[in-house]
Design a protein that fits this description.
about 375 residues, mainly alpha
Length: about 375
């Protein structure tokens, strides 16, 4: 009985990840051919930050954005100092998927409140980290200088890649739907993107409902308490879990999106899930770091190390201080309470952070 439920849970999680991939693929198709062109001709740091947010929101992958940036820096198209704000912006733009996942709980107010708080706490942390470290970087260059010193000591090159079997399996599952829409049905462009996005949304709703029901049956109250206690007792353990899972699946969006239904169903508290999300921030830097090994110039490695340093310093600087780490959780919880009362807050939040702010920044500063 338990074995069957575990097998069903694994199958449902796979369906959920395929749905996430379809969401990302649909969003990416809408922005295909636009994102990479955003990076060129940007000199103002605030425009660079806005470009990083918008490009990542379009591609729904901070790993893809930072890998492009590494390639542009490594080829000499972008300077390291110009690319640093773009790297910071990429951290903010990657979390639209989380918000879409939280909408799967919208029919149950308490679940939606918990899920939406889990979906947005990562955003508030990233915005806070940028608000503190971007001015410091502009004033002192501490990230780029530290990355240069480390890169000079490493002097790596020759190329490298890690193929995640989980990511490969999920991509294959999503590919079945994509091939059906674009190949069998012969639909392309925006229509194909809309269909894939729609399929992804439907599968997210179906998978979430089944996962929540199955998990509730599989995980007893004592097990839930034990899981929360284990994660809260050791922040280092929780951060390590988030880092390792993200390295394994090669996507911080997947890691954080998996946590949203766990929080929504009450299996995990926001306090227990938060350090796992911070670990995901660190884990997502591995892709750009590996990409930098293929760069002919040391500057490619430098900007990849900037990403590692930015995310690692952000975690070390925020989590140990209780008053600071509770700040993004309070903001996320407060927003979730308002969004539960009026769902227009969800649209306003997504439109403001991921569309209005970056578009305004590009128009004003580029």
């Amino acid at each position: 009985m338990v074995g069957g439920r575990i097998a069903l849970l694994v199958a449902l999680l796979y369906l959920f990840l395929v749905a996430i991939k379809l969401l990302e693929g649909g969003i990416k198709m809408f922005g295909e051919g636009t994102a990479e062109g955003l990076f060129t001709g940007v000199a103002n740091p605030f425009a660079g930050l806005a470009v990083g947010i918008l490009a990542t929101a379009l591609m729904q992958s901070s790993s893809a954005t930072t890998s492009i940036i590494v390639g542009l820096v490594g080829s000499g198209t972008l300077g390291v100092s110009t690319a640093v704000p773009m790297i910071m912006g990429a951290n903010i733009g990657t979390t639209v998927t989380n918000t879409l996942v939280s909408i799967g709980h919208v029919r149950r107010s308490q679940e939606f409140r918990r899920a939406f708080a889990a979906a947005t706490v990562h955003d508030f942390f990233n915005v806070m980290a940028v608000a503190v470290m971007l001015p410091l970087e502009l004033a002192t260059g501490f990230l780029s200088k530290s990355a240069h010193a480390i890169a000079s000591g490493l002097e790596m090159g020759g190329g490298g890649a890690f193929k995640s079997p989980i990511k490969t399996a999920v991509k294959a599952g999503a590919g079945v739907f994509q091939d059906f829409v674009t190949g069998t049905l012969g639909i392309s462009g925006g229509a194909a993107a809309g269909i894939l996005l729609g399929i992804g949304v439907v599968l997210v709703f179906v998978a979430l409902a089944a996962i929540t029901k199955n998990m509730r049956s599989l995980i007893a109250a004592k097990a839930e308490k034990a899981l929360n206690a284990a994660l809260k007792r050791s922040a280092v353990f929780a951060v390590a879990i988030g880092t390792l899972v993200t390295v394994a699946v090669q996507s911080s969006s997947i890691t954080t999106s998996l946590l949203v239904p766990l929080c929504g169903s009450g299996i995990l508290t926001l306090e227990a899930a938060f350090p796992v999300m911070l670990g995901a921030n660190i884990g997502t830097t591995i892709t750009a770091f590996l990409a930098s090994m293929a760069s002919d110039q040391i500057s490619g490695l430098e900007i990849a190390l900037v990403h590692v340093l930015f995310n690692t310093i952000g975690v070390i600087g925020v989590y140990p201080v209780k008053a600071i780490r509770r700040f993004p959780m309070r903001l996320a919880t407060g927003l979730a309470v308002r969004a539960t009362g009026n769902k227009l807050w969800v649209l306003a939040y997504v439109g403001f952070l991921f569309v209005l702010v970056p578009m305004t920044g590009i128009l004003l500063f580029r």
